[in-house]
Amino acid sequence: xxxxxxxxxxxxxxxQLAATADAHYSLLLFVTGASDLSMRAIRNVRxxxxxxxxxxxxxxxxxxxxxxxxxxxxxxVAAPTLIRxxxxxxRTLVGDMSNTARVLSALDIHADTETHGGLDR
Length: 121
Known about the structure:
By secondary structure, this protein is an alpha+beta fold. The chain is 40% helix and 20% strand.
């Protein structure tokens, strides 16, 4: 038997999940020039966005060698670093973003379809 509190919790969870599925994502990717690691991170994030966030994302790539002020503004200590600015709360990931499952989970992107193309490893 399910009580009213559980019904309400389930309804709120399903509502939040539906809202997340339609959410617009604003992402910042901090890289260090045209290094292999930076280029791999850029390819991986773009592939992830095109596979799971088509038409619902804005990705800004920032070279910390050219804009060190933004690096300090966001408290970046390593690159590549990906920051999900929106939807809130913000999330920060460091690395080349090659582990698709981890990146999707960390960004709260719920994939209900197969990935269209793999990410660099």
